[in-house]
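Support request, please re-run this one:
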Amino acid sequence: MDELGDVAVFVQVVATGSFSAAARVLWMPKSSVSRRVARLENRLGVRLLHRTTRSLALTEAGRAYHARVSVALAELDSAAGAASDSREAPRGVVRLVARPDVGAEVLPELVAAFLARYPEVRVEATLSASADLVEGGFDLALRAGAGGRGSTRLQDTRFRLFASPVYLARKGIPQRTADLAAHQCVRFGDVEQWVLHGPRGEVTVDVVGQLAADDLSFVRRAAVAGAGIALLPEPAVAPSVRTGLLTPVLPDHHAEGQPLHLVVPSNRHLPSRVAVLRDFLVANFPR
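Re-run finished. Output below.
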């Protein structure tokens, strides 16, 4: 095998954090990944990775080497993408990272429709709110917050109140924000107040409940299970509303959330396979 291939395997191991994860991304046996990294170390005459049974860590030499070769590989990938853009149909792998709540609830349907249109493109999705776009080797990222260079605004996210029909049948339907005090509220994180905007302006509501979680997908599933009323982003809840698993509560009230952006690396040529996925998501993302 060529040295460049061994370097690419090493960079993928660092990006994914383990030999097993790199093997899945590269579609290679784990033993081959380990063997190629070891061969690269032998060729260089230095140890690049500290290996334990549970984790990997870059050595000092490994950090310096990775900093240089990851940039070089990115440039090679850009050059390959530019050369392949002249082909009629986009093809190849697009690595997409998205925040878990929106990624798990909204993207599967959109990506499935995209792949049906572009059968020669393969999408590898990672759900993470903190993964580094460049260090992780991602082509696209779905992020919440302020936009920046290389970003396209998808929507201004609004949060609304939802509960399961079973819960509302058991506890009653709130008619005013004051009625929430008598309900179980499934809270995100350590939030104790909801700031809601309604026909009469802004109102702050103290919320109580037996259940809180630090993951919005967990909060949504708990609401579906009848645990109480939850304040959730509309895009992530839309499928559950369509299927009747959740019902809007006080629909004339909402909370402001961070806008969603689709981000691409600003230092990289955009291959056609990435550009078409970006454009498809921008055109079809629920508003």
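The two ends are 48 Å apart (CA to CA). The mean pLDDT is 84.
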